[in-house]
Structure formats: structure tokens, C-alpha cells
Design brief:
The complex is a heterodimer of chains A (755) and B (432).
Chain A lengths: L7 E2 L2 E2 L7 E6 L2 E6 L8 E2 L1 H16 L5 E6 L4 E3 L1 E2 L1 H5 L4 H19 L5 E5 L2 E3 L1 H8 L2 E5 L5 E3 L13 H9 L1 H10 L2 E3 H6 L5 E3 L4 H13 L11 H8 L2 H19 L4 H16 L1 H16 L2 H18 L23 E5 L3 H12 L3 E5 L3 H20 L5 H9 L1 E4 L10 E4 L5 H14 L5 E4 L6 H5 L8 E6 L8 E6 L5 H13 L3 E6 L6 H17 L4 H11 L5 H8 L1 H14 L8 H8 L12 E3 L5 E4 L35 H21 L6 H11 L9 H8 L1 H14 L8 H9 L10
Parallel strand pairs in A: 4-6, 5-8, 6-9, 7-10, 9-11, 10-12, 11-14, 15-16, 15-18, 16-17, 18-19, 19-20, 21-22
Antiparallel strand pairs in A: 1-2, 3-4, 12-13, 20-21, 23-24
Chain B lengths: L9 E8 L3 E2 L9 H16 L8 E5 L10 H6 L9 E5 L5 H14 L5 E9 L9 H12 L3 H8 L23 H11 L4 H20 L10 E2 L7 E2 L11 H5 L21 E11 H7 L5 E10 L10 H12 L8 E4 L4 H11 L2 H6 L20 H4 L6 H16 L3 E8 L3 E9 L2
Parallel strand pairs in B: 3-4, 3-5, 10-11
Antiparallel strand pairs in B: 1-8, 1-9, 2-8, 5-8, 6-7, 9-12, 11-12
Helix pairs in contact in B: 3-14, 4-5, 6-11
Classes of the chains: A alpha/beta (755), B alpha+beta (432).
């Protein structure tokens, strides 16, 4: 590195422009090293593409060059994909289509070069990276956990745009290619070689030398890349037009059923693949570009790209704003190391937290009141790890190492050197106070106490603390090893260093962390509460359980609200509901239906009896019709449209209850509450609110989150709809002041390029 | 005589053990290595010690796994310990954990280590079963055969009796005598009656049961959540019989000499699974890290005699040497912990302490003396608690130091007899 200060302006380095590609000749073989300056990963941008074009031309002219190797200069990334920032600058479908065509042309020229290029892959080889590798004449990957290959474009609402939809099926077979393209998942090196995606695996230390040798062999015609194709089954299914048509039809059907039409890129990807088979690859490439252009302009893609950037921003967000603490030195914001973690409460949440903590190398002390509960916690941790072992995501040695980091106890031994305590005991303030007092008596004065409560305000818990500045909330979501969100809840007293430590540790555990202010339900459960409540009021009014759930799933949530309540447990839901009703009595009064069902001892899945039926293994069945008798007037039948008029205080609904009405009532209640959270300072920004709802509740990602969705609808429309509902159900839908104000000023939550 | 260590006093900071379980019961699914890992991991957890401080790990085991003979290294390869930990395995029969502790202590006394973990582990539920020499030879020959017919020809030599597997016996390789036969012989040579033995066994169970009930014994036991399903947990030793009676013990048939014998399953220690470990530090290092210590090693000694004579009598030769090295006498001892392989052995050892003959054998003019029974194995011993060969020494050390602390005593003596005619004795001193 040069010692002069380098100033980066739009990817260009001040004083001296540095190329991303450098070439070193080794005995007739050109070793091309891709090392994007001032970036931690290699991305394909327009600038890089221009360099590639020039380089290809140069190598073509130079007759002393017999072959080439493309290798990365980054430690664990080959090519991570396209530069997504550039996608945001695309204004029209034609712009996007052109971007795709340019990429295709470059890779086409690489594929047709006089000399062969060997892709020497170590690290992430994704999206445009994998498309580049597919255009090379031969592929070698390292047998290393960091080496992953995939086409994740659909996760951003796009399709592969540089030939991926054409070259991948021809390399690995149609079924395999569709699986990779439609899920966006990545495969490890071992799997890649098995399906024929790469030609061979080597140890990282010999990647370069083997690649050089292979380049020469391929140039001399002594070696050729062999294609995968899926064996006999592959031939029967895919080796002929009829078989392919069947595979494609099945793919369309399954995709539509699964995505409910919310993700157009999935169908577009299938069409691009199909086009290449129907009318030849030249046509396929054109269709790919056209559909890429079309997808790049969809609202879905814009929302998914927004979420991608929002989560990336949160990865860099320290969670504290030093400017808010002018009297504190810089060192006061440095996160403290967390090496040993104590978890109190070995239930599902506690054990879930333990299961991810040990996988990130934390020593864990897991405490509960008796050994049987601790043993259950061990079993739960083991289940998570065992599943990863079975899926070969971890090795046997890792499995045993992770288990060795877990230590169970029924007393407070081993708490002396913990850096962080997370309590996940029963949601009862008195119990939490007792646990806090006992814990503070044994932990070091610098240790942090975090509560995993989902509803109790942290300040109330901290009342029992002798050092409330070291108390905060770390609200994980269930199941912890799968749910990506962590809400870090701070009180007025929480020290910024404590916040920074919790945020940093949460990120280390692989979570997307939003910092929220204290208050009943914090953010996620606060917006969830009126939504679930409204669903339950619909039940009170005689709307069928499955109709509500179906409407919400159609809207794009992963599960309906009634199913969710059954999953969470009605006991838990009503307990939380009471706290919320106490805090917001005017709009969160509990519905009759849930109260009646929980009073009948039906707690949902955990008691194998709730709104739905469950078999012995706890597998969910249909709606349990006997549930209606618990809260509807005798004899009334809850058919979809019927509205029971026994609520004197509430006017009868219309005779027809459409999906849209169900969606509006439940979702608008959530949107309105999200705005109140923003106005109350519970969340720092609409961005945090969107990320929190998508990753914490499963708010439809293609809608971007509550705030993005309101922007899409238009604030005035949101206010209008709320006012209409409020006229019918006074109190519950009173529009938030902030919304009214914004509607008046014709504002939106986001004003930047990405909205 | 000064304290052992030439100024670098070796302190014991803490000890932890798994519950001891009769072989084939609660801990049978856990290998000796995994028992050791559980124990060491819990020792680190309980002591709040950063694993990075640990420099050495010495473990004892008597029947090692053929596939992983250096159990200490396998135990040390856990993520909370640095990979640079020096880890090796020692074997001195039932005194293996003592050997591990004195090895680690020597390294600390020499100034080579400041912080070490020592102990041992044994799973008698998981002993290696061997093929007969003839069958083993056949397998080797077959693996070298060039063709299938040749291989089949070689297997043709195998006779049914060659297929009978061989389990390691607890017998002396030199004399062929089993440990039980040796105990039987000692009972006869030293005129130890069946009644005395059964009364001693009863005492062991009663005291161990009391120590378990009042939590003194369980304080040093970690809970073991039983893998792989974690549906159960073991929190205390499962061989202690608080309900046993003299009559029940007296009703048992002698095992090793059915006609004239007196050694029964009831007055012997059972085959046991378990692990125990202690944390040792240079006393100055312990201070620097802010650790209170349980005690220091004042002295130790090993001794041995002809295994064909009285196999388990060597503690009688080791104890006076350890006491002399400590500059102390039996009367200075506040507690005495004696490993109970067999009641007949303990009673023979105690008799030997009082004997002029054994004093002379040890090179002393006066006997060690009579051990005050009120100070002896006050929470029972191996007969009741169990005896995982490689781990027992660490259990006894922990129990002795913890109980010295509770009683406010100053000095403690521990002895362990071992196969091969070997014996061990150590004097510890409570600190602060």
C-alpha cells in the first residue's frame, strides 16, 4: 500500500487510479487477479466490466498467451455479485435491460475467447460471480467452508441477468438449475462438484498452481470440463422437450402456489429458462435481459433491495449515537467483550439463545430452577446443533465443541466471570425482580443484565436493580436460531456502552439488531398487539378462523394471526394482551374470543388444543369447529360472510366480509401503531420499523415493511381508510397524529432515491 | 522439613467431579474422554476461570481407549482451553489421579507451570474388548493376503474358541492374582474378620449417605445431564446405599473364596464410571488472580512392595515418608482420607500403621500410629461412593480439602493403594 492518503471518490482513488484487475504472466498463462480497490469484496460494476472488456481484447491480441486463470485477491470472496448500488440508478426497464445485455456480451466474449479461462474459485461466488464462472472454460473450487456458489438474484426480486438462466441449466441440468435459481440458495464446494457446477475441488494452498496447470491442459486440448446432467433420471426428465415441458410446468405451478403471485421474479426466471429451451439460447439470452429489465422496475424488487441495504446499514450501526452524550469520552461507546454468557431460564427461549451463543464461541452458563428444566434446555440446544450436524452445516468436532461450551446449573455458581446475563424466565415482574437481585449479588459490577421479556417495560424490571445503567432488554424472537431479529431495548438510564455491547454481541450472534426505546411491547409486540387483537375481534363478530388466516397469508404474511396465536400459546398471548390493554386501554381491549378459548384451557399447539386441531405429534390440522361454541351465540354458524350482531356497542359489519376488508382492518391497526411508535420515539427511524416488522413478525418483505407500505399506498389513503374504520369502530382506528400531519403536508416516510 | 515446592508453594484452588455411577448404569453412554471433558469444563465454569490461564492438563486413566490413548490431550481439546495446553496421560493404577496431581504439582514447583488442571477419568462401562491373539493374527494375515481365495483360506484356520472376546481383567499381570484374591489373602494374613469388614462397609455407606444428604458431598459433584437425549440427569453417586444394613451385608456370599473367604461385593468398591479434577496453581499466581485457595500440598510420597506379598499394603510404607517430609506426625492430622478398595485392605492398612513390623519395613523406628476413627473417611469412601480407577485420587483430594475447611482443621493425610503393590500418601495443609 502506498503511504499517501487515498481519497475515495465514487470508486476512483484520488491521485492515482487503481485497476481492479491485474495480470501476471506465468509461462504462457495469464493469471488475472481480481482485487477491487478500497472494498472488502469483489463486485461487478460498470467500471470493472470496462476493465474486463479491455483485458479480454488485450489477451486475445497477445499470441504469447495460451490460457488464463481468473482468481481473486480477496481473502474469502471470489466475486460476490453485481454492485447493487448501480441497480438503484436504473430509471427505466430499458436501462436495466441494457445493463444485462452488456453483462451478457462480456461473458459471451469470455466464453468465445481464443484462449481458455479457468475460474479458480475460493470464497463466495455469487450472482454475477457465478455467471462469470459459468462462462469460463473450466472451474476449480477450493474445498473450504467459505467457498459457496449460488444465484441469489430472486432474493432481490430480480433474475440472473448475465446468462445465468441459460448457462446454469446447461451445466447442471434443468431441475437442479431451477432449484438454485428459484430459491436463491447457495451450495458448498462439495455439493457444487457433485452437481457438476465446478469441475474439481482442491485445497486452497494449491488453487493457483492447479488452475495454471489446468489452463494449459485445456488450451492444449488435453482436458475438458465435463457437464453434469442428473444421470438417467436427468435424461428421462430433461433430455427431451416433453420432459422439460413437464418440469417447467410443475415449476410454474409450485412457484405460483408457494409465492401466491407476490414474487413475479420467480415466474420470470422460469420463463427465461424456458425461452432458451423453446427457441434457442440466443432467444433465451434476449428474454433474460428483457425480463431482468422488467423485474428491476417492479415495486417488489425495489422493496427487497431496500431491505437488503437497510440490513446492511444495521450491520454497521453501532446502536448508539455519541452526539447524544456530549459529556462522555469516546471510550464510553466502545462495546465490551462478551466471552461468557449466563442465561437464566432454560426454556425454549433461553435454550434457543444458548444454542446460537455456543455456535459463536461464547461460554454459556445455563441456569434454571431445577435439573429437569436444565436437562430440557440441553435437549433443545442439542436438537438445534444436531439438525445442523445432520445437514452437514457443522462437523462432529464442532458439535462436540459447542456442547462443551454449555454448562448447566441450578444455582449461581459460575456467574462470577460472566460478561452478560440474559434472563428468559416466566413473564412475571416479581419473579424477574427476584432474579435480577439474586444475579446482581453474584455477577461482577461491570456485567450487563439483559431481559428477554417480550412485554414488560425494562424500566419496571430495572427498578429492582442497584445499577440500572447496566440493565437493558434483549428481545429475541422464537425460534431463536431461525428468527433473524433482535430488539435491543434501552431505558433512559441504560449506559451507551451497555447498549453498544448488547448490539455488538447481537450482531456477533448473526442477528439484525434494532435499538428501540422502552415501552409496553417495545416495538415488535406493540405493533403486533392491535393486529392480533383486531383479528380476534373479527372472530367475535363471527368471521371464520380460516378465512382470517387465509386473507392474511394472501396478503403476504407467512402465517395468519389466529395460527400465530395458537403457535405462541394463548396463555402467553393473553398475558401479553393484558399488559398492552393496560397501557393502551382505548385501542387494545382484549377480544372476547381469545379470553373464552383460553378460559376453556385451550392454549394452542402446546396443549394440542386451540383454534386448530393438533395430532399427537403436535402437527396442525384444520380449524376445530368446537371452538366457535366458546364465544359465539348458541346456534350461530361462523361462515365466512356472517357477522354476528350481538355486540351492542359495535355496529354490524357488512354482510360480506371480503379478504380485503380483513386485511385492511388487521394490517391498518398495525400500520397505525407503527406510526405511533415512531412518533413516541420507540423506534429511531422508519427503516428500523420496517426491518423490525419484516424480520420480527414476517411483515411481507415484498411490501418493504409498514412504513414503506404506507408510502406505497400514500399517506392520505392510509388516513382515509383509518378514518373510515374509526367511524365504524370508534377508538380503535383513530389515526396517529403524525399521520394526520404528514397527510396534511403531503409527506412520505422515505424521501430518498430508494423509496 | 519445609513445605514441598522449595518456596513455590502449590495451591489447590478447587475440585469438581462427576457423580460416580456404577458401571453399566447412568453414565454408561459417556466415554471416559467425554466424562473428563464434562468435569474439566465444569471446573472452569465453577471457578470462573478464564480457560486461557490454564497451561497444563494431566489426567490419569487405568484402562485407556486403544483409539485415544492420551486421554488428557483429548480432554484438553475443548474450545475453552488454549490449544497450546500441555496435556499428557499418566497411569499408576488406582493412584493415577494422584500421579496426575503430583506431576502437575511438580511442574508448578519447578516453575514450569503456574496454572494446571489434574485429575482422571474412567469409564468401566466402555472398556476395550479384545480379540484372541489367534484371531487377531488371522485378521492381520488376511489383510495382507493378495487374493480372495487366499484370504478365505486364512480365515479357514479360525476355530470357534478363537472368536471368544477377551475383556481386560483386574488381575496382576505378574502374579495372575486378581485384586479380590489379593484382598482375600490380606484379610487372612492380617486376621481381618468378615464382621469387621462388613461393619466398615456399612460405615462407609452410612457416612457417604449422610454427606450426600447434608450436601457436603454433593457440593463437589456436578450434575451430569445425560447425552444424547438429555432426558435424565445424575446429581449424586448412585452406589451409596443409605438403606443398607449389617444384616444385608452379612448375608452376601464371598466372591473370591467361596469356602473360607470374607471379601464380598458388599465390602469391596464397585466397578464405577466417573471423572474428577482439581485446579492447581502456584500460590502466588492464585493470589495474583484473586483466588482463595483450599490448601497447599505439604508433602507426598510413593512406595511399593512385591505384588505377590500384600498387594494393597504399600500405603503403610508411603504414609510415614510423607509425614516425615511434611515434618508432621499422625497426631497433627485433623483428617485422614484413605482410599477404600476393599474393607479388608483399609483395615489391613490401619493395622499396618500401628505395627512395629511395618514401621521397620518402611525404615522407621516407630509406627505411624493409630488412626482416630472419628477423623477417618468422615464422608465414607470408595466402597460406598464408587471407584473409577483413574479418578479416585482427585475425588479424595477435593473431599479432604473441603472438609478440612468446613471443620477448620489444618492438616490432612490421604493414602491410596494401587495395583502392582504400590501406595501413595500426601499431606495437605489448609490455607488462610
Amino acid at each position: 500500500m502506498s503511504s499517501t492518503t487515498e481519497v475515495t471518490i465514487g470508486g476512483l482513488v484520488g491521485t492515482r487510479w487503481k485497476p481492479a484487475l491485474s495480470v501476471e504472466m506465468t509461462d504462457g498463462i495469464a493469471v488475472i487477479t481480481f482485487d477491487l480497490p478500497n472494498e472488502s469484496v469483489n463486485k461487478l460494476s460498470r467500471a470493472v466490466k470496462d476493465e474486463f472488456v479491455a483485458l479480454v481484447a488485450r489477451l486475445e491480441r497477445d499470441t504469447t498467451v495460451q490460457g488464463a486463470v481468473l482468481i481473486s485477491g480477496k481473502p474469502d470472496v471470489w466475486i460476490a455479485g453485481a454492485d447493487i448500488e448501480e441497480f438503484l440508478q436504473l430509471k427505466t426497464a430499458a436501462d436495466a435491460e441494457r445493463l444485462s445485455r452488456d453483462g451478457q456480451m462480456l461473458l459471451d466474449s469470455i466464453e468465445r475467447m481464443r484462449i481458455p479461462i479457468v475460474a479458480a474459485i475460493h470464497g463466495a461466488c455469487l450472482g454475477g460471480g457465478l455467471e462469470t464462472a459459468l462462462a469460463c472454460r473450466y472451474r476449480i473450487a477450493t474445498d473450504h467452508p467459505k467457498t459457496i456458489l449460488g444465484l441469489p438474484e430472486v432474493q432481490l426480486g430480480l433474475i440472473p441477468g448475465a446468462g445465468g438462466t441459460q448457462r446454469l441449466p446447461r451445466r447442471v441440468g434443468l431441475t437442479q438449475a431451477l432449484d438454485l435459481i428459484l430459491t436463491g440458495k447457495h451450495v458448498r464446494a462439495q455439493k457444487a462438484v457433485k452437481i457438476g457446477l465446478v469441475d474439481e475441488l482442491v485445497h486452497p494452498s494449491i488453487l493457483r498452481s492447479v488452475a495454471i496447470a489446468r489452463a494449459r491442459e485445456v488450451a492444449e486440448g488435453r482436458r475438458k470440463s465435463e457437464r453434469g446432467g442428473g444421470g438417467l433420471k436427468g435424461f428421462v426428465l430433461e433430455g427431451n422437450p416433453a420432459g422439460r415441458a413437464l418440469v417447467l410446468r410443475k415449476a410454474r405451478e409450485q412457484t405460483l402456489a408457494k409465492s401466491r403471485g407476490h414474487y413475479p421474479a420467480l415466474i420470470a426466471a422460469i420463463e427465461a429458462v424456458a425461452a432458451g429451451y423453446d427457441r434457442g439460447t440466443a432467444h433465451g439470452f434476449r428474454e433474460e435481459s428483457r425480463l431482468f429489465g422488467e423485474m428491476a422496475m417492479t415495486d417488489v424488487s425495489r422493496q427487497l433491495i431496500f431491505l437488503f441495504f437497510a440490513t446492511n446499514e444495521l450491520k454497521k450501526d453501532p446502536g448508539v449515537e455519541p452526539a447524544h452524550y456530549p459529556n462522555l469520552p469516546v471510550s464510553a461507546f466502545e462495546p465490551l467483550p462478551v466471552e461468557k454468557l449466563a442465561i437464566i431460564g432454560a426454556g425454549f427461549m433461553g435454550a434457543g439463545i444458548a444454542s446460537i451463543a455456543v455456535q459463536h464461541g461464547s461460554l454459556v452458563r445455563l441456569k434454571d430452577a431445577d435439573h429437569a428444566r436444565v436437562a430440557k434446555g440441553y435437549a433443545a440446544v442439542r436438537d438445534v446443533l444436531k439438525e445442523r450436524l445432520t445437514r452437514k452445516q457443522i462437523t462432529r468436532v464442532q458439535y462436540s465443541d459447542y456442547m462443551a461450551l454449555l454448562g448447566g446449573t441450578v444455582d449461581y455458581t459460575g456467574f462470577g466471570n460472566v460478561d452478560l446475563v440474559i434472563e428468559a424466565v416466566f413473564e412475571d415482574l416479581a419473579i424477574k425482580h427476584q432474579v435480577l437481585r439474586e444475579t446482581e449479588a453474584v455477577i461482577s459490577p461491570t456485567a450487563i443484565f439483559a431481559s428477554n421479556t417480550s412485554t414488560i417495560p425494562i424500566a419496571q424490571i430495572a427498578q429492582a436493580s442497584s445499577r440500572p445503567e447496566r440493565v437493558l432488554g434483549m428481545h429475541f424472537f422464537s425460534p431463536v436460531h431461525k428468527m433473524p431479529l433482535l430488539e435491543v431495548i434501552t431505558t433512559a438510564e441504560t449506559h451507551p456502552q451497555v447498549t453498544a455491547t448488547a448490539v455488538t454481541y447481537g450482531k456477533k450472534l448473526g442477528k439484525t439488531v434494532i435499538v428501540v426505546n422502552d415501552g409496553p411491547g417495545f416495538y415488535v409486540n406493540r405493533i403486533l398487539s392491535p393486529y392480533l387483537n383486531e383479528a380476534a375481534i373479527l372472530l367475535d363478530q363471527g368471521v371464520a378462523v380460516d378465512l382470517i388466516d387465509k386473507a392474511i397469508v394472501d396478503f403476504g404474511f407467512p402465517v395468519g394471526p389466529i395460527t400465530l396465536v395458537d403457535e405462541v400459546g394463548l396463555d402467553v398471548a393473553t398475558k401479553a394482551g393484558k399488559i398492552m390493554a393496560d397501557a393502551f386501554p382505548e385501542r387494545m381491549q382484549p377480544a372476547k374470543s381469545i379470553q373464552a378459548v383460553v378460559a376453556a384451557g385451550r392454549y394452542g399447539r402446546k396443549s394440542k388444543k386451540g383454534f386448530y386441531t393438533y395430532d399427537k405429534e403436535g402437527k396442525k390440522g384444520d380449524v376445530d369447529p368446537s371452538v366457535y361454541g366458546l364465544f359465539l351465540a348458541p346456534g350461530s354458524i361462523p361462515v365466512a360472510p356472517s357477522i354476528v350482531t350481538e355486540h351492542a356497542s359495535e355496529p354490524a359489519g357488512p354482510p360480506e366480509m371480503s379478504s380485503v376488508q380483513i386485511q385492511q382492518r388487521t394490517v391498518l391497526a398495525m400500520l397505525n401503531e407503527a406510526v405511533r411508535c415512531l412518533a413516541d420515539g420507540i423506534i429511531r427511524s422508519p427503516r428500523d420499523g420496517d426491518v423490525g416488522a419484516v424480520f420480527g413478525i414476517g411483515f411481507p418483505p415484498f411490501r418493504g415493511g409498514p412504513f414503506r407500505y404506507m408510502d406505497t399506498l400514500g399517506i392520505q389513503i392510509v388516513v382515509q381508510r383509518l378514518e373510515d374504520l374509526n367511524a365504524r369502530f370508534p377508538g380503535r382506528f383513530e389515526p396517529a397524529d403524525m399521520l394526520l400531519e404528514m397527510a396534511r403536508r403531503r409527506q412520505s416516510f422515505y424521501s430518498d432515491e430508494r423509496s | 522439613m519445609a513445605t514441598y515446592g522449595d518456596g513455590r508453594r502449590v495451591a489447590i484452588v478447587a475440585g469438581v467431579r462427576t457423580p460416580f455411577a456404577k458401571a453399566g448404569t447412568a453414565l454408561k453412554s459417556i466415554s471416559a474422554i467425554d466424562l473428563g471433558k464434562l468435569c474439566v469444563a465444569e471446573l472452569l465454569q465453577r471457578t470462573n476461570l478464564d480457560g486461557k490461564e490454564v497451561q497444563g492438563l494431566v489426567f490419569g486413566t487405568v484402562i485407556p481407549s486403544v483409539l485415544a490413548p492420551n486421554i488428557a490431550r483429548e480432554v484438553s481439546l475443548m474450545p475453552q482451553l488454549p490449544k497450546g495446553v500441555q496435556a499428557y496421560t499418566v497411569s499408576r493404577a488406582c493412584a493415577s489421579a494422584n500421579q496426575a496431581i503430583t506431576d502437575a504439582a511438580d511442574q508448578i514447583a519447578l516453575g514450569h507451570l503456574d496454572v494446571a488442571i489434574a485429575g482422571g477419568s474412567e469409564s468401566l462401562s466402555n472398556i476395550p474388548i479384545l480379540h484372541s491373539p489367534r484371531f487377531a493374527e488371522t485378521l492381520l494375515l488376511a489383510s495382507k493376503a493378495k487374493s480372495l481365495p487366499a484370504r478365505l483360506r486364512i480365515f479357514g484356520r479360525v476355530r470357534p474358541k478363537d472368536l471368544v472376546p477377551i475383556a481386560p481383567a483386574i488381575a496382576e499381570p505378574s502374579t495372575g492374582e486378581t485384586m479380590g484374591q489379593s484382598a482375600e489373602k490380606m484379610a487372612k494374613l492380617n486376621s481381618i474378620s468378615r464382621e469387621e469388614q462388613d461393619h466398615f462397609a456399612l460405615r462407609s455407606h452410612r457416612l457417604a449417605a449422610a454427606g450426600t444428604a447434608d450436601g457436603r458431598l454433593t457440593a463437589e459433584i456436578m450434575p451430569v445431564y445425560i447425552p444424547p437425549k438429555f432426558e435424565s440427569v445424575l446429581t449424586s453417586d448412585n452406589g451409596i446405599r443409605e438403606d443398607t444394613s449389617y444384616e444385608q451385608l452379612a448375608a452376601l456370599k464371598p466372591v473370591f473364596d467361596r469356602k473360607y473367604g470374607s471379601v464380598t461385593a458388599g465390602n469391596s468398591s464397585p466397578l464405577t464410571d466417573g471423572s474428577a479434577a482439581v485446579l492447581l496453581m502456584n500460590e502466588e499466581k492464585a493470589k495474583a488472580l484473586g483466588y482463595p485457595t483450599l490448601g497447599i500440598i505439604r508433602s507426598y510420597a510413593y512406595a511399593a512392595l512385591d505384588p505377590g506379598e500384600q498387594l494393597l499394603q504399600a500405603p503403610v510404607l508411603a504414609a510415614p515418608v510423607a509425614l516425615r517430609r511434611a515434618g508432621l506426625a499422625l497426631k497433627d492430622m485433623d483428617l485422614v482420607e484413605m482410599h477404600e478398595a476393599f474393607a479388608a485392605q483399609v483395615l489391613s492398612n490401619l493395622q499396618g500403621f500401628e505395627s512395629q513390623y511395618w514401621a521397620q519395613r518402611a525404615g522407621f523406628s516407630q509406627p505411624v500410629g493409630e488412626v482416630d476413627r472419628a477423623k477417618l473417611n468422615v464422608m465414607g469412601g470408595s466402597i460406598a461412593i464408587g471407584h473409577p480407577f483413574g479418578a479416585t485420587g482427585a475425588r479424595i483430594m477435593t473431599t479432604l480439602l473441603n472438609e478440612l475447611r468446613r471443620r477448620g482443621g489444618q492438616f490432612g493425610l490421604m493414602t491410596v493403594c494401587a495395583a502392582g503393590g504400590m501406595g501413595f500418601a500426601m499431606v495437605v495443609e489448609r490455607t488462610q
